[in-house]
Amino acid sequence: MKIYIAVDGEGASGVVDANEMYPGRPGYEFGRRMMTLDVNAAVAGCFDGGADEVVVNDSHWQMNNIEMELLDQRADLIRGVGKHLGMVEGITEGFDAAFFIGLHARAGGSDGVGNETIYGREVIGVRMNGRPVGEGEINAAVAGYFGVPLAMVSGDNLFCEEIRQTLPDVETAVVKYAINRFSARCLSLEKAHSLIREKTAKAVREVALHKPFIVEGPVEFEVEFMSTAEASLASLMPGTERKSPRCVAYTGKDVVEARKGLFSILIIGASASKDIYG
After folding, report:
1. pLDDT of residue 275
2. Under DSSP, is residue 164 helix (H, G, I), strand (E, B) or coil?
3. Whole-angstrom distance between the N-terminal and C-terminal Cα of the chain?
4. All domains of the chain, ordered by start, with CATH?
């Protein structure tokens, strides 16, 4: 059995502060260590449950956060930027299930810890076919395109509640309880890692119960930017529609094409952001 794990930082055990989430800031070394320990618990759970192969994709910011020398050596690691499918780069029909470790709630949808959608301050919200979505739903849909079901996630309570609105059968490991965007009541690492390992093993054993999240094409992504400058620049991309002063949309023939268009819009739009005005 072959399992795919995408690991993010904002939803990692113990992580609450922006300085712990962003490379180069005070606290970042703590944040990346928490990511590594969480994913090790997930890898261990995969093999407890009967997995034969595990591939981990470092999916946070510059995507080179995991401390490779501390990673469970049974897992392969995808790391580095420029990946066309981002958080689910390398996923194919050959995987039996996907697990998302350390994810977070979508931008503006709740007081979830570190809530954002792909980008930080530049993005107020993203909609897929008119429905507000976060990174969990977007990447579950891309995995579903390849026939791979999302079977298990970890993060704070608000993210887990959010993803289960779309995928009610997904296994969830709640490692912290959000107070606001930058504070939470955190489980001890022993409890959090035991829970991740337990839920991961259960999801592997019961993988046949999980079905891919299929979003039929065409698929439209709308991005609500923080500023009109970002939306104006993003609308230069061919095939986009500027639906309002701050909203730019792109439609692809399927969710993979649409996801690539979404990321292109975000890259172009974010380049217009200014330090003071945004």
Report:
1. 83
2. helix
3. 46
4. 2-119+134-209 (3.40.50.10780), 219-270 (3.30.1360.130)
